[in-house]
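Title: Prediction job returns without error message
Component: structure pipeline
Severity: low
Priority: P3
Assignee: unassigned

Description:
Job completed but the reporter wants confirmation the result is attached to the right record. Sequence as submitted:
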Amino acid sequence: MAANPRGLALWAAALSFLLCIAGGLWILTSVGFKHDGDDAVWTGLGLYFMGKAFFVGPMLLLAAARPERR
């Protein structure tokens, strides 16, 4: 049985959004917005993953909603 490409793209959009948000929140809660030493780098990395979640997830969702070309 062949997989539905649109359904697969919707699952990929939701999964990428959730995993990037979870990773960013995990990094931020373990570091906690500290600005001394290497903690500033980890804080930036956590914020990067949170921003990435709000870009990659919706882009995959828009790509899945795009009408098929024939």
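Comment from assignee: result matches the submitted record. The two ends are 22 Å apart (CA to CA).
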